[in-house]
Amino acid sequence: MITTIGIEHFKKMFDMAFSEVKAKEQYFSELDAQTGDGDHGTAIVTALNAVNNSMKQASDLKMMFTDAGFAAMSEASGSTSTLLGSWLMGMYDGVDGDEIDAKGVAAIFRAGLANMQKQTKAAVGDKTLMDALVPAVEALESNQEAGIESMFSAATVAAAEGVEKTKALVAKFGRARNLKEKVIGFTDPGAASMACIWGAFEKGIR
Ligand SMILES: [Mg+2]
Questions:
Q1: Cα-to-centroid distance, 172 and ligand 1 (Å)
Q2: pTM over the 0.85 mark
Q3: Domains, the chain, with CATH or none
Q4: CB-based contacts of 20, cutoff 8 Å, min separation 6
């Protein structure tokens, strides 16, 4: 059972997130093309590539998150990189020390979510990445006793369930909002890529 993680674990998690999302880039763009402009695969890969490249240079965990967030925001324009950047910059606020225990892991991801929530009013049920991210963070928080690997397993399951639920929803944000009931049946691309990121974190932690 892993009881603490440090900078190398986080680097590996985000490196895995980049490669797993990159492998599904076309799929995410195809999902976006169903109800939006079809650029989500490119947007999330560009942002995660900037994050990953920035993290490779990092030697301090706290600074790593703020630098990576800034890198995501300056590399690309658009809501995907802005939200990803705000997520990472928020994680900076949650870092306490170099060796992060289960409680600390939950605190980092809660802080990231809290900062992202300053950027967007999107909540669970609005057919956005929040439908995957919010349940993932809640799963981290409620599985702390089980150890860090189990926290990420639970978060991965919760995020995937959240993606499934987006099919039944109408969109409250983005271009898909204009399509009203016509988007019912389609998966939200932002939620799908966010769930892919959590699955990659789970693999990266091992
Ligand atoms: Mg798009």
A1: 14
A2: yes
A3: 4-205 (1.25.40.340)
A4: 196, 197, 199, 200, 203
Cα 34 to ligand 1 centroid, rounded to whole Å? 10
Write the DSSP assignment of the chain as a string of letters.
Answer: ---EE-HHHHHHHHHHHHHHHHHTHHHHHHHHHHHS-S-HHHHHHHHHHHHHHHHHT--SHHHHHHHHHHHHHHH--SHHHHHHHHHHHHHHHH--SSSEEHHHHHHHHHHHHHHHHHH----TTSSSTHHHHHHHHHHHHHTGGG-HHHHHHHHHHHHHHHHHHHTTPPPSSSGGGGGGGGGTTPPPHHHHHHHHHHHHHHHHH-
- What are the pLDDT digits (tens) for 134-183? 999 999 999 999 999 999 999 999 999 999 999 999 999 888 888 999 99
pLDDT per residue as tens digits for the range 65-112: 999 999 999 988 789 999 999 999 999 999 999 999 999 999 999 999
Tokens of 61: 């965990």
Ligand 1 centre distance from Cα of residue 114 (Å): 23
Q: For residue 2, how far is its CA from the centre of ligand 1 (angstroms)? A: 37
